Amino acid sequence: MNSLEMLEIDLGQLVERRGLSQARHRRESEREALLERFTRKTARADALRRLIGAYDRPGKAGVRPELCPMLDWAKAELNGLEADLRPERLGALLRERDLFPAIDTLADPLGEPPARRSWGR
């Protein structure tokens, strides 16, 4: 094999490694976005539980009538959030998007490829 063929193989491998690197970065961004959405929904569900608990406790002297529609709406919102936050729903979403595969086909045994550089730098 001559040096030109070796250079073509090295360049081909570098292109492939950079493609894997880009795919890993996209997957990491998806992971972060999903985690952010999950934590926002969890925080909102916690806030709704506190709100509902503050105004809608059994034995408390009647809830003001004008608050009832808001509390009903908050309960419906909470039910929707709780459905989204169920572990089996999150697990299905993770499997569907393949964000944490058992065998990582995007792994590069050589690590991250070198950064692209402009000529002369």
Topology:
Blueprint (H helix, E strand, L loop, with lengths): L2 H53 L12 H17 L2 H11 L24
Helix pairs in contact: 1-2
Strand content: under 5%
Indicate the percent of residues in helices. 55-70%
Q: What is the succession of H and E elements?
A: HHH
Number of strands: 0
* Average of the residue pLDDT scores: 85
Tally of helical segments = 3
Distance between the termini: 30 Å
Largest sheet: none
What is the 3D form?
A: rod-shaped
Indicate the structural class.
Answer: mainly alpha
Report the radius of gyration as a whole number of Å: 26 Å
Low-confidence blocks of residues: none
Offer a quick outline of the entry:
By secondary structure, this protein is mainly α. The chain has helices at 3-55, 68-84, 87-97. It is rod-shaped, with a radius of gyration of 26 Å.
